[in-house]
Design the sequence.
């Protein structure tokens, strides 16, 4: 078993946050009418993607009827539809859709994870829940040494990325779409979250997301080139 797989196996049994455990399991029991035939995942959701990825995507938390249902990040909801279409368009995914864990989707040079691993009520985790989840993200980051670019999907992910990778950085870089910040040996890249609130209003367009992902690939390539030319 790989180290990442071992972390995943431990993570999916986590019950550290009583409020989140109660909510994720209530949603899994009651379901949404459109998904009444689904066997909801209803557990913490691990990261997903290429273990050798140079580009990491950091989201907020699983959606109640998306990843909390399917068991895979950004899979089975409108945010994921928007994100995976862009990942496919920019060469990070082998297909533009994500509907279930066994749909054949593969990521190349990309790994997707989140700050909080259980679906929170109203998509708003408490600070204590964010902090309880922090060790899982730390464990993944430690096992993704090639990941030199972290695309932070939204201000919450940006703050979490700074906290994990550059806790002492002052002044604190402000979140903005397209913002960049050096955080230790990684670069944070800001992107509006692909939520319906942003995509339906045009605050985030496919072209905007494609541009961020293209920039992430370029930054990842620069990091690889610098590493390959560094003296032993």
Sequence:
């Amino acid at each position: 078993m790989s180290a990442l797989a071992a972390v995943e196996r431990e993570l999916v049994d986590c019950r550290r946050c009583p409020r989140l455990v109660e909510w994720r399991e209530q949603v899994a029991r009651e379901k949404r009418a459109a998904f009444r035939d689904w066997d909801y995942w209803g557990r913490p959701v691990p990261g997903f993607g290429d273990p050798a990825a140079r580009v990491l995507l950091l989201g907020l938390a699983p959606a109640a009827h998306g990843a909390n249902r399917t068991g895979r990040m950004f899979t089975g909801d409108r945010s994921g539809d928007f994100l995976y279409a862009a990942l496919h368009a920019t060469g990070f995914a082998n297909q533009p859709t994500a509907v279930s864990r066994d749909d054949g989707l593969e990521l190349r040079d990309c790994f997707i994870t989140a700050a909080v691993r259980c679906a929170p009520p109203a998509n708003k985790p408490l600070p204590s829940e964010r902090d309880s989840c922090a060790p899982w993200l730390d464990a993944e980051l430690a096992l993704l040494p090639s990941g030199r670019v972290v695309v932070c999907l939204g201000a919450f992910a940006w703050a979490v990325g700074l906290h994990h990778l550059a806790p002492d950085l002052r002044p604190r870089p402000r979140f903005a779409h397209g913002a960049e910040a050096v955080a230790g040996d990684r670069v944070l890249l800001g992107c509006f979250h692909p939520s319906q609130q942003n995509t339906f209003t045009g605050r985030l367009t496919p072209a905007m997301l494609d541009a961020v992902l293209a920039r992430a690939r370029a930054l990842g390539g620069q990091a690889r080139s610098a590493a390959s030319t560094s003296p032993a």
About this structure: The first strand starts at residue 48 and ends at 49.
